[in-house]
Amino acid sequence: QVQLVESGGGLVQAGGSLRLSCAASGLAFSSYAMGWFRQAPGKEREFVAAAAISWSGYNTYYYADSVKGRFTISRDNAKDTVYLQMNSLKPEDTAVYYCAAASRNWDLNDPNKYNYWGQGTQVTVSS
Fold first, then answer.
1. Helix, coil or strand: residue 13
2. 80-90: per-residue pLDDT in tens?
3. FRET pair for 87, CA 20 to 30 Å: which of 17, 62, 66, 80?
4. In the prediction, which pLDDT does 57 show?
5. Which residues contact 89 (CB under 8 A, 6 or more apart)?
6. Is the four-CA dihedral 39, 87, 107, 22 of positive or negative sign?
């Protein structure tokens, strides 16, 4: 049974930082692209960042324009964990953050391309 468990969410002031973690089990982690998405109340789920499958040891990462330069995604295949370091947080970053796993390496900004999802962790940024 595949499980993705997010942690690290919380309440932070604008300009602060948080680091989200997503621990995976029940899947061959290194064979999956990992993504972070978020969903604010009344809004659709939106892409945040993705770490592609690394076949040659070279890591490729993708970011939404709204978080470029502020958020950093990374993955540790030895720990079956993906991280999202979030700096310079803004109130508009407030949302439930979800990690997801995709068995393919394209269209990683499309939530429909992901096979598995975590339950989400709340991030609240106060002004």
1. strand
2. 999 999 999 99
3. 80
4. 72
5. 12, 14, 15, 16, 17, 18, 70, 123, 125
6. negative
